[in-house]
Design a protein that fits this description.
With 364 residues, the protein is of the alpha/beta class. 25% of the residues lie in helices and 26% in strands. It has two domains: 5-167 and 326-362, Medium-chain alcohol dehydrogenases, catalytic domain (Quinone Oxidoreductase, Chain A, domain 1, Alpha-Beta Complex), CATH 3.90.180.10; 168-302, NAD(P)-binding Rossmann-like Domain (Rossmann fold, 3-Layer(aba) Sandwich). The structure holds NADP nicotinamide-adenine-dinucleotide phosphate and zinc ion (2 copies).
């Protein structure tokens, strides 16, 4: 798992964009990555999505960020080198890396393909790797990762529109499956129509469920219904609409990035319905047990990304069912404006940085 001392002695120059302090702007940054170890895959980054978690991390919302921080965990590109023990990909293959690049590989979670819940899970950026170095993400020219954390992109999957599947996609696919929310005959609500939310709508539909979007933005109604495939739309501020939908949903995926009231959402659930929280605001929520949860034996749960086996399954499912993200492709030097726009939910529905064509021009 760890790389040899020799690998660490021969680091490879790398270039990306980093924030050097909490809430700081991103700017060009030189750093280094380890040499390709026996179990590693090295790839040239072509595209990288901008997740709201990148913004939380740059701002140090969770108090866990290590600076300088090179964000980016929806990373796709082309393999340039593989270690001698790597069988699953070869030079020239299109691959991706999502939110994690390491785990202990010995605990119950790792043994059950749930590396995402391993206590030793290592995040793609702003984490400490096995060799003691700080990890850096995909707003950079190349990546190197242990092959277990590398996903193979099917030929039919466009790289720019497929990149957001690596975090946003798996984060909604995994709970839709695990909690059994998106099956034929089920009615699922999706709260927050952003990067995660719009993919939740597409996956829930592809899995056969009836889908209702619950949004604060009236302006997203047309697209939700006519482009993304939702069956109905609720404006969360419209009490009449919310009242009418009381007790109609089997489950809800809540993707909102800020604290908000849960009571109106729990009321939408049928008895035994499940509200699954995937948004990650830094502050706690208020939860009213009686009557909200107790009446109807309702549940509130959580979920974080997905294991690597399920991530590959999700990518293959997406390729088969034509599920990709709606993206706004931007050059590297637009990233600070994109972050500002993301903070005010002004993106339809994911920014993706064209690293391959725009990063080199910003080199120091
Ligand atoms: P995003 O693109 O910004 O989407 C969030 C959506 O939430 C917005 O488009 C907006 O939708 C709604 N919203 C924003 N602020 C709101 C507020 N104050 N009140 C009500 N609704 C609000 O973000 P994202 O990339 O999808 O990420 C969403 C959250 O999931 C973030 O907190 C992120 O860190 C977290 N996340 C968690 C995981 C995990 O593993 N659990 C993985 C990835 C991301 P409307 O305009 O439709 O209301
Ligand atoms: Zn993410
Ligand atoms: Zn483990």
């Amino acid at each position: 798992m760890a790389n040899s001392a020799e690998d660490q002695e021969h680091p490879v120059e790398a270039f990306g964009w980093a924030a050097t302090q909490p809430k700081g702007l991103l700017s060009p940054f030189n750093f280094s990555r380890r040499a390709t170890g026996d179990h590693d895959v090295r790839f040239k980054v072509l595209y990288c999505g901008i997740c709201h978690s990148d913004l939380h991390a740059v701002n140090n919302d969770w108090g866990l960020s290590l600076y300088p921080i090179v964000p980016g965990h929806e990373v796709v590109g082309e393999v340039t080198e593989v270690g001698k023990e790597v069988k699953k990909v070869k030079v020239g293959d299109k691959v991706g890396v999502g939110c994690m690049i390491g785990a202990c590989h010995a605990c119950d979670d790792c043994n059950n393909d749930l590396e995402n819940y391993c206590p030793g899970m290592i995040l793609t950026y702003s984490s400490t790797y096995h060799d003691g170095t700080v990890t850096h993400g995909g707003y950079s020219d190349h990546m190197v990762a242990h092959h277990r954390y590398v996903v193979l992109f099917p030929d039919t999957m466009p790289l720019h529109a497929g990149a957001p599947l690596l975090c946003a996609g798996i984060t909604v696919y995994s709970p839709l499956k695990y909690y059994g929310l998106a099956e034929p005959g089920k009615h699922v609500g999706v709260v927050g129509l952003g990067g995660l939310g719009h993919l939740a709508v597409k996956f829930a539909r592809a899995l056969g469920a009836k889908v209702t979007v619950i949004s604060t933005s009236h302006s997203k109604q047309d697209e939700a219904l006519h482009r993304l495939g939702a069956h109905s739309f609720l404006l969360s501020s419209d009490q009449h609409q919310m009242q009418e939908a009381t007790g109609t949903m089997d489950g809800i995926i809540d993707t909102v990035s800020a604290v908000h009231s849960l009571s109106p959402l729990i009321k939408l659930l049928k008895s035994h319905g499940k509200l699954v929280m995937v948004g990650a605001p830094e502050k706690p929520f208020e939860l009213l047990v009686f009557p909200d949860l107790a009446m109807g034996r309702k549940m509130v749960g959580g979920s974080a990304i997905g294991g690597m086996k399920e991530t590959q399954e999700m990518i293959d499912f997406a390729a088969k069912h034509n599920v990709t993200a709606d993206v706004e492709v931007i050059p590297m030097d637009y990233v600070n404006t994109a972050m500002e726009r993301l903070a005010r939910a002004d993106v339809r529905y994911r920014f993706v940085i064209d690293i391959g064509n725009s990063l080199a021009a910003t080199k120091l």
